[in-house]
C-alpha cells in the first residue's frame, strides 16, 4: 500500500489517507486515487466526464427523471489537490441545479469464469440530512459495456448499484438491475435491493468503503454487497435465472460516480424524489480512491 500525507479538514476529519489497499487473494486490476492539481478534472485517460441531461440519443434526464444538468465546471467537478475527487451540486438564482457525473474509459471490468472480481471505493456521502437533503442522490455504480452506443437496452445489460443513498438517510443501498422493464426477474424498475445503516459512523460526512464482489468460482454464482467489510446483500444466479445472469453479469462493465438531484430512487417512477425549497445546495460528495481487483 502506498501511503501519502493525511489531510485534515477544518472539521477535524481526515480526508485523503492512502492509495487503494491490497486485498488478500486478489490483484489490483485498475485504480485511480485522484492525485492531481487542485481544481483540475480527473485524469482523462481514466475517466469520461458526462455533461448535459442525457447521452446523445439516450433517454431524457438520464432515464431516471433527475432534475440537474451535469457539467465539467470545477464548481461541480474537481480534484481537491489532496488526492480526492469532489462533486458538488449547485442551484442557481433561477432554481436550476447542476452537478457532475463521471464514468471510466474502460468498460471491461468482469469476473472471469471461475474467478472473482471486487470493485470498491472509499467515499464520503454529502454531509447533509433531514429536509435540507431532500433530492440528494449520490451513487457509485456500474453499467454493462453494451450499453455504450445503444442507450436503449437497459436493464438487460446489467447494473450493479454499489452505493446509493437518497435524502440524507443514514443507510446505503445495493441494487442489481437486470432483465426487462417493467417486471422481469429483477422486479424492475426497482431492481433487487438490500440496505444497511453504515457501521461505526453515519454514512453522511464520514469515510466508508463500499464494495461488491462478483463470485464465479462456484454454482450458483453470486454478487455480494458490503460496506467496510460488512456484507449486507447477496443475489445469486438462481435468483434471476442462468440466461438473465449471463446477460447482466458475465461480461464487461464500466464504473460511474455521480451526485444526482431528484430522480426515481428509491421510489418508482410515479412517486419520485424531488428537491424542495429547503434543499440546501453546495454539499459535496468526496471520493478518495476507486479500485477494481480480480482473483489471482
UniProtKB/TrEMBL annotation:
<dbReference type="GO" id="GO:0005975">
    <property type="term" value="P:carbohydrate metabolic process"/>
</dbReference>
<dbReference type="GO" id="GO:0004553">
    <property type="term" value="F:hydrolase activity, hydrolyzing O-glycosyl compounds"/>
</dbReference>
<feature type="domain" description="GH16">
    <location>
        <begin position="14"/>
        <end position="296"/>
    </location>
</feature>
<feature type="signal peptide">
    <location>
        <begin position="1"/>
        <end position="18"/>
    </location>
</feature>
<protein>
    <submittedName>
        <fullName>Endo-beta-1,3-glucanase-like protein</fullName>
    </submittedName>
</protein>
<dbReference type="InterPro" id="IPR013320">
    <property type="entry name" value="ConA-like_dom_sf"/>
</dbReference>
<dbReference type="InterPro" id="IPR000757">
    <property type="entry name" value="Beta-glucanase-like"/>
</dbReference>
<dbReference type="Pfam" id="PF26113">
    <property type="entry name" value="GH16_XgeA"/>
</dbReference>
<keyword id="KW-0732">Signal</keyword>
<dbReference type="InterPro" id="IPR050546">
    <property type="entry name" value="Glycosyl_Hydrlase_16"/>
</dbReference>
Amino acid at each position: 500500500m502506498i501511503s501519502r500525507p493525511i489531510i485534515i479538514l477544518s472539521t477535524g476529519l481526515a480526508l485523503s489517507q492512502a492509495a487503494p489497499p491490497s486485498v488478500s487473494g486478489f490483484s489490483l486490476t485498475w485504480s485511480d486515487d485522484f492525485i492531481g492539481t487542485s481544481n483540475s478534472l480527473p485524469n482523462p485517460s481514466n475517466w469520461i466526464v458526462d455533461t448535459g441531461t442525457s447521452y446523445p440519443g439516450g433517454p431524457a434526464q438520464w432515464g431516471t427523471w433527475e432534475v440537474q444538468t451535469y457539467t465539467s465546471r470545477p464548481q461541480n467537478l474537481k480534484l481537491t489537490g489532496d488526492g480526492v475527487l469532489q462533486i458538488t451540486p449547485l442551484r442557481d438564482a433561477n432554481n436550476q441545479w447542476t452537478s457532475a457525473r463521471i464514468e471510466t474509459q474502460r468498460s471491461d471490468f468482469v469476473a472471469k469464469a471461475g474467478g472473482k472480481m471486487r470493485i470498491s471505493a472509499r467515499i464520503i456521502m454529502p454531509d447533509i440530512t433531514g429536509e435540507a437533503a431532500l433530492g440528494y442522490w449520490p451513487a457509485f455504480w456500474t453499467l454493462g459495456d453494451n450499453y455504450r452506443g445503444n442507450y436503449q437496452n437497459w436493464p438487460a445489460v446489467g447494473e450493479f448499484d454499489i452505493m446509493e443513498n437518497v435524502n440524507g438517510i443514514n443507510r446505503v443501498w445495493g441494487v442489481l438491475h437486470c432483465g426487462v422493464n417493467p417486471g422481469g426477474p429483477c422486479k424492475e424498475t426497482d431492481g433487487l435491493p438490500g440496505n444497511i445503516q453504515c457501521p461505526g459512523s453515519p454514512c453522511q460526512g464520514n469515510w466508508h468503503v463500499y464494495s461488491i464482489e462478483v463470485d464465479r468460482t462456484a454454482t450458483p454464482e453470486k454478487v455480494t454487497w458490503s460496506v467496510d467489510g460488512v456484507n449486507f446483500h447477496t443475489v445469486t444466479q438462481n435468483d434471476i435465472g442462468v440466461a438473465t445472469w449471463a446477460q447482466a453479469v458475465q461480461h464487461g462493465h464500466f464504473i460511474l460516480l455521480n451526485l444526482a438531484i431528484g430522480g426515481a430512487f428509491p421510489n418508482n417512477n410515479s412517486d419520485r424524489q424531488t428537491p424542495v425549497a429547503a434543499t440546501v445546495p453546495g454539499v459535496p460528495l468526496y471520493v478518495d480512491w476507486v479500485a477494481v481487483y480480480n482473483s489471482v
